[in-house]
Specification:
Number of helices: 23
Strand content: 15-25%
CATH class of the largest domain: Alpha Beta
Shape: globular
Structural class: alpha/beta
Distance between the termini: 124 Å
Number of domains: 3
Helix content: 25-40%
CATH architecture of the largest domain: 2-Layer Sandwich
Radius of gyration: 35 Å
Strand order of the largest sheet: 22-23-24-21-20-16-17-18-25
Largest sheet: 9 strands, mixed
Length: 707
């Protein structure tokens, strides 16, 4: 259109001629074609299919070929152990925990191993956990960068790498990207297909290229400083979880934070798998403190299912520590003088190298700085020299912690070291309900709750030669309490009495017997009367003198007033025993008052005793071979967990050793029932304490007479 209309001001408007309609259409078509071409990515064939298949069979070879800049020397023993642990967890399941030296490449190995098994199609959903969310994202960025920039990976895994490279650092392009090429599985061509992937945020979804082993695979990250329960993406749950350095300063220095982290790993992550398959977990870490979570998970005695292993930088110490002390002193003085590299100490080491290295062995001989100074000498010539250079720089304690996974002994609170695994292993070899030879007494403790009774039955054998006694737990279990209502106490007393009556009837039919088939009765039962006291009193009055109500008093029960250690004379209403006494209540009921702190300690001490000698506590069942738990031992896990739900800790405060109890879990009912059975044995005249009070030898049943 030429010319133009005049404006209101009278001036003629200038109008540029429009292009012909067909030219506009051609221009729009060219742009559409250009955009379409930019959306289509052609996937080339694998550069060397035979090499790819061969390397996927050997993790170490795969890592060294595709990442030669990171893994340029033969893997060390601890690096090989990490590689095998991750492989075993992925292929066979289970949990693995490895404490490696700081700087030994554990994070790099974990990240690349995850990538390998995702690319190979073995893992469809991998979860990478770190101490914090920020560190977890950093690990994911390392994996993303490898896919984006590694030419060797791109050559052999084009179906995963090429679509990502085509994004050119613009993740939004993945929404409309299409791929064409030949399938990797059968080499047949496929038409243009939407790659449907995501390459940003806390998780990445691998390109959905037809025939690709990694089609739609997920690698997600989570920080252990936040909620980790219920990780789920696109209706899928993780196949494997790699936990990298879970501890923070807070979890190392705070018992409360450490407990939270332990529960996240033991509960939140343990059940992250699907309905039919448990998730595999691998932890690679460095121990910062002897009582931090990393120390627990790498200790087979505390966490046997994790198959923990710990590695040191300094495998064996040198035979001449005096020469190294002189060397580190030279290094320290040189640092004071401003001589960063301390050539005097270096020359001393070279002159005495043979003597200084005698007997010493390091885990990784490649860990030293071979760079040269202006005078042509090397900064360091061995990994052993590197170790002691660090000792001079930051101190032996720091090096032992970060390099050797051997933190210094704690000066803070120390617990007894009792573990569920140790209790599970302490079995007698006798079947359930069988009274071992030589046992002269059977006692029972019952802990009462609104929904259940937990009971423990023990047989006692006295060794007169050394005045030690062995306690055999011959039976334990749970009696349900029926007829109670959540949020209401209506009918609770009646329900408790019914449950206790059912337990008494079950005792009769249990048939506790000796090896020669002689039936034995339970001599004395103590029932916890700390809750619903009057109902327990009434039950004991109905059942007779072999059932006694009892209450625990001590700091672990929230009571600090009752003093069992002070000598107190017996009165008509109070009879004194060993760390227990009888208190007469209305209607002629005698209440057994127990020093709960003392008897819980006594209980734990007996489980920590040598099971091959007298003076220990034992469980029924057969023992497994070596470190492998038998079926009987595995069944004792719940009981053992209850017994370790509370532990006694010791701490020196102002030069005085203080003891206190720490609760790890609310599920301590078998512990209460167990120590009540101990008190019952003491009441029946068994000398459980080395120097008992004379009253302890008196049969307590004599004090239960009416009036």
């Amino acid at each position: 259109m030429k010319g133009g209309k005049r404006s209101k001001s009278g001036k003629k408007a200038v109008v540029v001629d429009d292009p012909p309609i067909n030219e506009r259409q051609r221009d729009a078509e060219r742009k559409r074609e250009s955009r379409a071409k930019s959306k289509i990515v052609e996937i080339p064939a694998c550069a060397n299919r035979r090499r790819r298949n061969r390397l996927e069979k050997d993790d170490a070879d795969w890592l060294r070929w595709y990442f030669p800049d990171l893994f340029w020397y033969e893997f060390t023993e601890q690096q090989t152990a990490m590689i095998k642990a991750i492989r075993r967890a992925i292929l066979q399941g289970g949990d693995q925990a490895i404490a490696a030296s700081r700087g030994e490449g554990k994070s790099t190995i974990a990240e690349r191993m995850l990538l390998k098994y995702v690319l190979a199609g073995t893992v469809g959903f991998a979860l990478l956990c770190h101490s914090t969310g920020g560190k977890a994202e950093d690990s994911l960025n390392e994996i993303k960068e490898a896919v984006e920039t590694n030419d060797r990976l791109a050559a052999d895994y084009p179906e995963a790498c090429i679509p990502v490279r085509a994004l050119e650092q613009t993740p939004n392009r993945a929404h409309y990207q299409q791929v064409v090429g030949k399938r990797h599985d059968n080499r047949k061509p496929f038409p243009a297909t939407n790659s449907k992937f995501s390459w940003c945020g806390q998780q990445v979804f691998f390109p959905a290229v037809p025939g690709s082993p990694s089609c739609g695979a997920i690698i997600a990250t989570r920080g252990l400083d936040a909620e980790v329960r219920g990780v789920k993406k696109m209706g899928r749950r993780p196949d494997v979880i790699v936990i990298d350095d879970p501890d923070t300063e807070q979890t190392v220095n705070s018992d409360e934070q450490a407990d939270k982290l332990e529960k996240r790993i033991d509960r939140g992550l343990a059940f992250a798998g699907g309905q039919q398959k448990s998730v595999s977990r691998v932890m690679v870490t460095t121990i910062q403190r002897r009582i931090c979570p990393s120390a627990k998970f790498t200790d087979p005695a505390q966490k046997p299912s994790w198959q923990g292993k710990r590695f040191r930088f300094l495998v064996s110490k040198p035979a001449r520590p005096d020469l190294w002390e002189e060397y580190t002193a030279m290094r320290v003085q040189a640092q004071i003088d401003g001589d960063e590299h301390s050539r005097i100490a270096h020359q001393f080491y070279l002159a005495h190298r043979e003597a200084m290295e005698a007997g010493a062995k390091t885990a990784n001989p490649n860990r030293y700085d071979p760079s040269r100074l202006p005078d042509g000498s090397q900064v360091e010539v061995s990994s052993l020299q590197r170790y002691f250079n660090e000792v001079a720089r930051v101190g032996q304690e720091a090096v032992s912690t970060e390099y050797d996974n051997d933190p210094p002994e704690e000066s803070g609170p120390q617990d007894s070291g009792i573990t569920a695994w140790r209790i599970q292993r302490q079995v007698s070899g006798f079947p359930r309900k069988i009274v071992p030879p030589g046992c002269t007494l059977i006692t029972q403790g019952i802990d009462c709750r609104k929904v259940a009774l937990h009971w423990v039955v023990r047989a006692w054998k006295v060794d007169e030669s050394d005045c030690l006694i062995t306690g055999y737990t011959i039976d334990y279990g749970v009696q349900d309490v029926w007829g109670t209502t959540i949020g209401s106490d209506e009918g609770v007393d009646e329900a408790l009495i019914r449950a206790l009556r059912a337990r008494r009837e079950a005792m009769i039919t249990a048939c506790y017997e000796t090896a020669d088939h002689q039936i034995r009765d339970i001599d004395l039962t103590l029932i916890d009367a700390g809750w619903r006291t009057e109902a327990i009193y009434e039950a004991c009055r109905q059942f007779g003198y072999s059932f006694r109500p009892s209450m625990g008093f001590g700091k672990s029960n929230g009571c600090v007033r009752t003093n069992f250690s002070s000598p107190v004379k017996s009165t008509p209403d109070k009879k004194i025993g060993d760390r227990w006494f009888l208190s007469k209540q209305p209607k002629g009921t005698w209440l057994v008052c127990m020093d709960s702190d003392f008897w819980k300690s006594w209980e734990h001490d007996r489980w920590m005793s040598d099971p091959n000698r007298h003076g220990a506590l034992m469980l029924f069942g057969e023992r497994g071979e070596g470190k492998r738990l038998s079926d009987d031992e595995k069944k004792h896990l719940s009981y053992a967990k209850h017994l370790t739900a509370e532990t006694e800790v010791e701490e020196v405060i102002k030069g005085v050793l203080k003891r206190s109890w720490k609760a790890k879990s609310d599920s301590n009912h078998y512990l209460d029932a167990s120590y009540m059975s101990d008190v019952a044995a003491s009441m029946k005249g068994v000398r459980l304490i080395k120097n008992p009070r004379p009253a302890a030898a008196i049969n307590a049943a004599e004090w239960f007479k009416p009036g």
